[in-house]
Design goal:
single chain; 115 residues; alpha+beta; 3 helices; globular
């Protein structure tokens, strides 16, 4: 069974200024996963480094779509969820952004949605 792939930035990174940072959007999705642990069972969760190119993402959905968090869907979404998709590259559908991903999960997994 293929699973959706969720890409998040690793929790601590430098951006050239020497300070450790974290991605607030990735932290938001991590919080959603903590609220609803059952979601993790349907995911292939991958942490990527901050510097670009993020080759793992690029290989799946192209260089223009390597922002995190991003959820690459295992299958074409149903018609009822197609409007939630951010884009499609090489037959792969993806959803970008924490709220967009959370709304999708709410729709397909029946968990609460963001307010």
């Amino acid at each position: 069974m293929q699973r959706d792939v969720l890409f998040l930035l690793k929790e601590s990174f430098a951006d050239g200024q020497g300070l450790p940072y974290y991605c607030p959007q990735c932290a938001e999705i991590t919080g959603v996963l903590a609220y609803f642990p059952k979601l993790r069972h349907n995911l292939d969760l991958r942490y990527v480094d901050f510097p670009r190119p993020r080759n793992e993402i690029v290989q799946l959905i192209g260089a223009d779509n390597q922002s995190c968090p991003v959820l690459v869907l295992a299958d074409k979404p149903g018609l009822d969820a197609l409007g939630m998709v951010s884009g499609q590259v090489n037959g792969r559908y993806y959803i970008s952004g924490p709220r967009e991903i959370a709304r999708y999960w709410s729709h397909v997994n029946g968990v609460a949605r963001p307010h």
